[in-house]
Amino acid sequence: MDIPAIVLAPLAGGPSTPELAAAVANAGGVGFLGAGYLTVEALAEHLRHTRELTRGLVGVNVFVLAETPVDDDALARYADEVEPEARAHGVALGDPHFDDDALAGKLELVVAERVDVLSTTFGCLPAEVIERIQHSGTDVWATVTSVAEAETATAAGADALVVQGAEAGGHRGSWTDEAEALPLAALLATIGPVVDVPLVATGGLADATDVAAVRRAGATAAQAGTAFLLAVEAGTSAPHRAALAAGGETAFTRAFTGRTARGIVNGFMRRHPSAPSAYPHVHHLTATLRAAARAAGDADRINLWAGTSFERAQGAPAAEIVAALGS
Predict the structure, then answer these.
(1) Domain range holding 225?
(2) Nearest to residue 9, comparing CAs of 136, 172, 124, 131?
(3) Element (H, E) at 84
(4) What is the pLDDT of residues 129-164, one digit of tens each?
(5) 58 in any annotated domain
(6) CA–CA distances in Å: residue 47 to residues 13, 40, 53, 108
(7) pLDDT of 60-95, one tens digit each?
(8) Do residues 168 and 262 lie in contact, with contact meaning Cβ atoms separated by under 8 Å?
(9) pTM reported for the whole predicted model
(10) Considering the domain boundaries, does residue 290 fall inside one?
(11) I need a labelling partner for 22 at 20 to 30 A (CA). Which of 92, 270, 302, 317 fits?
């Protein structure tokens, strides 16, 4: 497929909605649905609704997770540390455990529905799985954060690479949590010469100047996420929207999920700087706390994912944001 200039980042965990994906697709971009944290049934409903709203290009992003050893003692200590935060909202912490986010079922759905694009985060699918998905008519993109990841994904048969710089909001797409976070410009400069597939640049892209810069650097397209968090069609929560509008600084944290992610610094991040690397264990541990805090409008105890350029995000219809990015 010919990749449009503007791609919507998946924005799993709330901001992703069928309305947002469809609006971006209708404006000539690629509208992504974040499958992360959804059941297979919920993803199917999101796809159905999105297809009712657009005939444009629609993608689905999935997590590719490998179970790795975690420090159970550190996890238990962290649970004790954050328990008072949950008690403040009258809820119990969740059960920290590993799961693969129903990957197999989601891949079967993507094949059955002949989705235009499947993108992966946190890892790369095996070559034989990529080939099967491609045979159904779906392009496969892999999110990469290093030359090594880019070379592995290309060798596995990925049609394109989403090159994610350290400026990006939300979880780093790196395949291990210990990987170095490199700026987008550096990644494009090092990955571009060693692969022969299209590059979709992402990380801190907030306006047409940013998009033009990454395209000059060799990217075929720009993927933007934070730029759409204040879109009319986004499912971004009220306290998250207020925090984006209020300004501040961003930093990396494991405090909410046990995996490195960039968000607007708040009290929870400051109080819990040493969360263990344990994903999705910590995500499940804090899920009830974050849901209760979000419902109460408590921005101090929720993950406020945002990229470094979040203060340039605009509250507008998604079509206007696509036009502004591509102008």
Answers:
(1) 6-326
(2) 172
(3) helix 72-87
(4) 999 999 999 999 999 999 999 999 999 999 999 999
(5) yes
(6) 16, 11, 10, 13
(7) 999 999 999 999 999 999 999 999 999 999 999 999
(8) yes
(9) 0.97
(10) yes
(11) 302
